[in-house]
Amino acid sequence: MERPTLFGRFTLHPDSPIRTSIRGARMAGAIDSWPGGLIRLGQDFRTGYGDGIVQFRIDTLSPDIYRETEIGAAAFQHAKGPHTFNHNHNRLLFDWYEERFSLLAGVRRVLNRL
After folding, report:
1. CA–CA separation, 74 and 43 (whole Å)
2. Mean pLDDT on 62-69
3. Which of 6, 15, 44, 110 is the most exposed place for a label (fewest CB within 10 A)?
């Protein structure tokens, strides 16, 4: 039997989409195994683009059923985010942004294209 791969045939899951809410529908990192089970991270859009992460425990994952439970949330106080969180061995990757006005923003964009 051929082992399934990310590049193999795709079949839509019967429970897709798993979430249509502005709280957690868009992925915020890879699904990962933790002591509490499989954890899925989703972006929190309630107050703005990717303004925090919502954690979901995957309770049931089978070819026919997907169920998850929200178990927590995290957000920065003085910046927007994080809206991505991943880890690899001893490294953490997360990102954020600040909303601020700059008169030179257009100039910087043009210079970056030269």
Report:
1. 10
2. 93
3. 6
Tokens 């003085």 found at: 78
Strand partners, 72: 55
For the purposes of burial, counting CB atoms within 10 Å of the CB of 68, is it exposed (0-12), middle (13-18) or buried (19 or more)?
buried
Phi then psi for 80, rounded to 5 degrees?
-85, 120
Q: What is the pLDDT of residues 71-113, one digit of tens each?
A: 999 888 888 888 888 888 889 888 888 777 877 878 888 888 8
Mapped onto helix, strand or coil, the DSSP state of residue 105 is helix
In order of 3, 30, 52, 81, 97, the CA distances from 76 in angstroms are: 41, 20, 7, 6, 10
In whole angstroms, give the CA distance from residue 54 to residue 70. 7
